[in-house]
């Protein structure tokens, strides 16, 4: 409360409370005197003037750091692009999307291919006909050619 | 520390050196004075000030106004100065304290004023030297730089009540030290 009282941040109620206490307490009055003296010393601390060459030094550092930056090659640019967290996230997302598209289109193509194969098998399959009278195996190629030979 | 317009900050973030000079003019007084008080040495304070402004220059584009610019500068300054002080603590014997920095006081003062100022400076130096960096920082920001409790809390990323207790302990330490001397 005393700290707040001394630097003026105490509420009116706190201030009155401290003042009331100080009138009747010698040791606290002594403490107040000590704190006020220190408070004044710090408040009167001088402001140092910023050396004039400082801005020039800072400017020189900025310029020299700018010059130190080497021209960036394609590989370095790619490296920077990849190691930039935001870019890396975009790149990963794009890659994941590409994989998904490739996977699903692959599945669709495979399905279509299987369906076509099934159709082809159906159309080219050889049928054994065991129902011949002479017990001969008759190959039925599902075309009119056997009729021609038979 | 003077207020800086958002336009100037934006231009500085884009690398505009003349806009950045405005930022420097508005905040270098605070940065340098806090640095002198914490490092207790003008050469170190110059180094800290340079480092602070290089950090500001490089990070201004990502600043994004998530907190006040002043609070951001207060935080960078305090952290850079304390780190510098800790790093150089081992070489404490080589320090040239406030007297070196005092050379920069405007020459228009009378000799009596100068003597009084020098005496006061010795006392400030004596008071601050007995405190730990975190107590000293709170005291400097409050008593010398005149920041509010809330501004100190935001700059140091600590609760306001911690600022109060640190200031209380800092004052207690100063009183205790005075008791030991007398």
Largest interface: chains, residues each = A-B, 29 and 41 residues
Helix tally of chain A equals 7
- Poorly predicted runs of chain A: none
Order of helices and strands of chain B: HHHHHHHHH
Q: Provide the number of structural domains of chain B.
A: 2
CATH architectural grouping of the largest domain in chain B:
Orthogonal Bundle
Alpha-carbon distance between the two ends of chain B: 38 Å
CATH homologous superfamily (4th level) name of the largest domain in chain B = RNA polymerase sigma factor, region 2, helix turn helix motif
Number of strands of chain B: 0
Q: What overall geometry of chain A do the principal axes of the alpha carbons give?
A: elongated
CATH fold label of the largest domain in chain B: Rna Polymerase Sigma Factor, Chain: A
Binned strand content of chain A: under 5%
Structural class designation of chain A: mainly alpha
User: Hey, roughly how much beta strand do the residues of chain B contain?
Assistant: under 5%
Rounded to the nearest angstrom, the distance between the terminal CA atoms of chain A is 121 Å
Seen as an oligomer or otherwise, the chain set is: heterodimer
Helix content class of chain A: over 70%
Instruction: Using the CA coordinates, give the radius of gyration of chain B.
Output: 17 Å
> How would you sum up the major sheet of chain B?
none
- 3D shape of chain B: globular
Structure write-up:
The complex is a heterodimer of chains A (150) and B (182). Chain A has 150 residues and is mainly alpha-helical. Chain A has a domain of 42 residues. Chain A is 71% helix and 4% strand. Chain A is elongated, with a radius of gyration of 47 Å. The mean pLDDT of chain A is 77. Chain B is an all-alpha fold. About 6% of the residues of chain B have low confidence. Chain B has two domains: 96 residues, RNA polymerase sigma factor, region 2, helix turn helix motif (Rna Polymerase Sigma Factor, Chain: A), CATH 1.10.1740; 53 residues, Orthogonal Bundle (Arc Repressor Mutant, subunit A). Chain B is globular. Classes of the chains: A mainly alpha (150), B mainly alpha (182).
């Amino acid at each position: 409360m005393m700290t707040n009282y001394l630097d003026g941040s105490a509420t009116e109620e706190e201030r009155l409370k401290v003042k009331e206490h100080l009138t009747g307490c010698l040791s606290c009055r002594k403490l107040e005197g000590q704190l006020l003296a220190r408070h004044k010393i710090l408040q009167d601390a001088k402001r140092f003037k910023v050396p004039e060459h400082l801005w020039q030094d800072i400017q020189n550092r900025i310029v020299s750091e700018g010059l130190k930056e080497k021209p960036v090659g394609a590989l370095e640019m790619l490296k920077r692009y990849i190691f930039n967290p935001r870019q890396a996230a975009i790149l990963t997302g794009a890659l994941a999307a590409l994989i998904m598209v490739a996977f699903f289109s692959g599945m669709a193509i495979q399905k279509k291919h299987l369906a076509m194969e099934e159709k082809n098998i159906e159309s080219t399959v050889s049928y054994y006909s065991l129902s011949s009278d002479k017990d001969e195996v008759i190959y039925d190629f599902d075309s009119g050619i056997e009729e021609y030979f038979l | 520390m003077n207020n800086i317009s958002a336009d100037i900050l934006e231009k500085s973030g884009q690398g505009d050196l003349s806009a950045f000079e405005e930022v420097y003019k508005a905040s270098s007084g605070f940065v340098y004075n806090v640095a002198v008080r914490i490092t207790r040495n003008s050469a170190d304070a110059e180094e800290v000030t340079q480092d602070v402004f290089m950090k500001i220059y490089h990070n201004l584009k990502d600043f994004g106004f998530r907190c006040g610019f002043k609070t951001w500068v207060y935080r960078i300054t305090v952290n850079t100065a304390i780190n510098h002080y800790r790093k150089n603590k081992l070489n404490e014997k080589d320090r040239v304290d406030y007297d070196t920095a005092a050379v920069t006081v405007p020459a228009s003062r009378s000799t009596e004023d100068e003597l009084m100022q020098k005496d006061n400076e010795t006392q400030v130096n004596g008071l601050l030297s007995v405190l730990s960096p975190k107590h000293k920082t709170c005291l400097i920001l409050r008593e010398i730089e005149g920041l509010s409790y809330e501004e100190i809390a935001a700059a140091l990323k600590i609760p306001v009540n911690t600022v109060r207790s640190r200031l209380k302990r800092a004052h207690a330490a100063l009183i205790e030290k005075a008791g030991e001397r007398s």
